[in-house]
Amino acid sequence: MKGKKIALILAGILLVSAATSAHATGWGVGGFGGVSIPIVQDDAAQGVVFGGHIRLSLGGILGLEPNWTYFKNGDWTTSDAPGETFPGSKFNSFGVNAILGGAGPVTGFRFFPFAGFKFYNEKNDFRDFSGSHLGWNAGLGIEIGAGPIGIEGRASGELLPIDGGGSRKWVHILGGLNYYFGAK
């Protein structure tokens, strides 16, 4: 029964997305910023995230979103070294998201689930470490717009597998602004 409820909720979100963006075509650019919250990581604290994307509508309810994101884990402490603070890692990522619900201008609001892959480059001067890995992200957003301008908010779960097993995980809570070319 629980699985049926989840499936119905997801189907409802997709239908609302399709209905609110059936007219959405074209392309746009946007920027975003917010907070990066590490999940189950001893060597990371809450940090900042910002970046940019290009929105490409494929017509109907499908869009693509090439993107670049920079985020930094906050400084962290450990009980093994009381009183010492260690710098968090810095990340650059480049990727592509598929967006359900269109990727063009919207009048009113639309919900858009998204999922994609990214190449993450981690750098940490304290640990003298730098490395790149393929990872994944998915989430849900909402955009409110009029004409060529859209204001969005989204939550994105980020998953970066690491060598030797395990992974690094974050939730990014973002706000942003989009401009769509050719919108009236």
Question: What does this protein structure show overall?
Answer:
With 184 residues, the protein is mostly beta strands. The protein has a single domain, classed as Porin. The protein is 11% helix and 61% strand. It has one helix and eight strands. The protein has an eight-stranded antiparallel beta barrel with strand order 1-2-3-4-5-6-7-8. Strand 4 and strand 5 form a beta hairpin. About 5% of the residues have low confidence.
Please provide the ordered H/E string of secondary-structure elements: HEEEEEEEE
Widest sheet, order of strands? 1-2-3-4-5-6-7-8
End-to-end separation in angstroms reads: 45 Å
Give the strand content.
over 45%
| CATH top level label | Mainly Beta
Number of helices: 1
Assigned CATH architecture: Beta Barrel
